[in-house]
Amino acid sequence: MLKIFKVTAILEGISYLVLFTNMLFIKTNNPELYHTLLRPLGMTHGVLFIGYVVLAFLLRKPQNWDLKTFGIIQIASLIPFGTFYIEKKYLENNA
């Protein structure tokens, strides 16, 4: 299950950045394309975000994450590039 969490963390981070790119650059240059992409990108990111949070809860006990580590892992999902940091620092040596 840790391998699934690692993949989800990376995909969630990528979807977050793609969503930001859509909001910042495509919206100003091509509003029609922005609205066409917003729903599928938003839905994909939402599903990956929920998967990340749920998998973190499921892995907390098996990975022996203390409250501080668990909090850092959860907060990282809200910060751009945060899940990449978590994958590198906390998950790289465990799978």
From TrEMBL:
Keywords: Cell membrane, Membrane, Transmembrane, Transmembrane helix. One of its GO terms (cellular component) is plasma membrane. It comes from the Bacteria. The keyword Transmembrane helix applies. It is found in: Cell membrane. The chain crosses the membrane at residues 7-26, 38-58, 70-86. Pfam families: DUF3817 (PF12823). InterPro entries: DUF3817_TM. This is DUF3817 domain-containing protein.
